[in-house]
Design brief:
With 232 residues, the chain is of the alpha+beta class. It is 15% helix and 33% strand. The strands form five sheets. The chain has a six-stranded mixed beta sheet.
Length: 232
């Protein structure tokens, strides 16, 4: 088959302990999925149905284990925020997946950052417009290597944390998710047919804030390692 323009490269993530790569199809994100974070953003954390937004696959930036990624400060913002998140990678597709069987569809897990142009996100929210320019911009999803579920299991209790220049800013546990990974998959698969290669960014705990050019972000989840990003 010939193409009238060159097809885009496939976005991939490294897999811990393997040479093979995980191809990224779509990136789904869960909004306000920790109660304390919902409160710090000015919202009631009652357990209403989850809501979702998306990032393009090529917003993903792989962060190699043991290395520091240089991440350019994005354009058109003066309020660039970090959000540390547990990322679940789908290995088996499906629609209307039950929560009881949802983990059968998870291939692995990783540490990720949902980088956000907060000023633009808030402006769009106040105007009743989509969030894309605040959430779905280039290089807005740095993600570390994936760890296979068959190797590590399905984490339910694990510390999640982020530091800026060595100082704690976010620290919680993934057991504080309002909607667990299987529950999130069950809800999401009601609206989209999930496919192998999909990523789900499951939400961030409290402590989000702005980062400046030159600052070092280090974050991690117990059992999944950590990632390091310097904003330049």
């Amino acid at each position: 088959m010939s193409y009238v323009v060159a097809p885009p490269a496939i976005t991939t993530l490294a897999v811990a302990g393997q040479d093979g790569l995980f191809p990224v199809r779509r990136v789904y994100c869960v909004g306000r999925n920790y109660a304390a974070h919902a409160r710090e953003m000015g919202f009631d954390p009652d357990r209403e149905p989850p809501f979702f937004f998306a990032k393009p696959a090529d917003a993903v930036v792989p962060v190699a284990s043991g290395q520091t990624l240089e991440l350019p400060y994005p354009s058109e913002t003066s309020n660039y925020h970090y959000e540390i998140e547990l990322v679940a990678a789908i290995g088996k597709g499906g629609r209307n997946i039950s929560a009881e069987h949802a983990l059968e569809h998870v291939w692995g897990y990783a540490v990720g950052l949902d980088m956000t142009r907060r000023d633009l996100q808030i402006k769009m929210r106040e105007m009743g417009r989509p969030w894309e320019i605040g959430k779905a911009f280039d290089q807005s999803a740095p993600i570390g290597p994936l760890h296979r579920a068959e190797d590590i299991g399905h984490p339910q209790h694990a510390a999640i944390w982020l530091q800026v220049e060595g100082v704690d800013q976010q620290r919680s546990d993934i057991d504080q998710l309002i909607w667990s990974v299987p529950e999130t998959i069950a809800w999401l698969s009601r609206y989209f047919e999930l496919q192998p290669g999909d990523l789900i960014m499951t939400g961030t705990p409290e402590g989000v804030g702005a980062v400046r050019a030159g600052e070092l972000l280090t974050g991690g989840i117990d059992g999944l390692g950590q990632l390091s990003v310097r904003v330049v």
